[in-house]
Amino acid sequence: MRRDPLDYLATALQTLREEGSYRSLRILDGEQKALTSIDHRLVVNLSSNNYLGLTTHPRLRERAANAIRSLGVGSGSVRTIAGTMDIHMQLERKLAAFKQTEAAVVFQSGFAANAGTVSAILDREDAIVSDELNHASIIDGARLSRATIKVFPHRDADAARRILEALPGSQRKLLITDGVFSMDGDLGALPALCSLAEEFGCIMMVDDAHASGVFGRQGRGTIDHFGLHGRVDVQVGTLSKAIGVLGGYVAGSRSLIEFLYHRARPFLFSTSHPPAVAAACLAAIEVLEMEPALMDRLWANTRFFKDGLVALGFDTGTSESPITPVIVGDTALAMALSDRLFDKGVFAQGIGFPTVPRGRARVRTIVTATHTRDELQFARDCFRDVGTALGVI
Ligand SMILES: Cc1ncc(COP(=O)(O)O)c(C=O)c1O
User: Fold this and answer.
1) 194 and 231 in contact (C-beta within 8 Å)?
2) Which residue is closest in CA terms to ligand 1's atom 15?
3) Mean of the per-residue pLDDT values for the chain?
4) Taking a C-beta distance cutoff of 8 angstroms, is the pair 326, 337 a contact?
């Protein structure tokens, strides 16, 4: 009988089980909401990126349903052949106006936007200077570009400066940071990095996946929050988190966007969004403009929940956003905390290596605009009880 050439994978999985870091997928029985049924249990959901509750917003539902009726369910092609529909162009124009740039291009996901852009605009002669906690899609894009990758310690602009000083002045350089870091909820060192980019002639790129819909006027992101319009050459965002749907985009100059139309591999080689996705994203940006109360509620809930965890004595790191990690160190402990919370009716995912560095395992929480105070108080009480029982606080 043929030996299974993949049997090393089963061994690797067994190791994960022994380390206590093996995860089964949690399954939503219904909609993605603040209070929902997961694995047949009603839980307060603190694990989604659905910051504003738009995944179930009536305006988005209606526009998506209308688009299905009038335009069908698929685009049928990649963008560069027959898969560019008028609604894709409408969305790109809307995003450019929202981000205050000349143009924007939509990708299938935020991951594709980052990886596709970094790998397209750089090549092996170039250098990438990147925050050590930047998202995996930036890292993969950097590797695909074959440029030299230089990593600076998290948010350390002085260290980034030392790296830039050591690189040849004539070399093309990309300086890149997340706007909001997804596992810690802190903000990138944007103002200092923008100044460095100007001083050293770098391309400045920010991944605002967790900031769009959360920071800045009407959710325009960290560039707007810090007043840096015109100083960031490449702005990436996702349509899959606060926007509530699916996709990613790059906003910037007309020539950047046209170049990506010609060279970004996910744009060239992967089918575009169904029209319903584009329609729902368009509706979401209208909601951001028309319903500022959603962002106000998101931030009020964030303060309430975060302050409660800190008062209980949890280590919430350096978070400045609705992402609040509860850092416990050991992966097995993080998973146990998550599991016991789930048994009590709170879903907050445990996260360990390789998503976060070894020794920095955590339970990550994200509140949304649509959580009620009672739900958040309940979740705080559960954290207190389980945290005490496990000796975390
Ligand atoms: C910082 C960051 N960038 C990019 C992405 C990728 O976005 P998407 O889920 O739309 O692919 C994520 C989300 O997973 C993220 O957290």
Assistant:
1) yes
2) 209
3) 97
4) yes
